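Assess this:
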Amino acid sequence: RESGSSVRGRSRISKVGNRKLRNMVFLAALSACTYNKACKALFDRIVAKGKSKKLALIAVANKLLKQAFAIAKSGLPYDENFVSKLA
């Protein structure tokens, strides 16, 4: 990302990378919106702002990836009620 925002505008979602992996994460986000309360809340919040459902699903996929990396890094099991110490 660039430090200034007036010259280049907003950054776009990139489609660079492994297509199959990206598709699997997208499908996982679709399922998470049904079964994961936090993901469903994020999805509903973004759609309520007037954004598209596809963009909201991509945001959920990003959240899932961040959760997966945090779990792998910390070594702790997944806890649905976990609250970050930074929050």
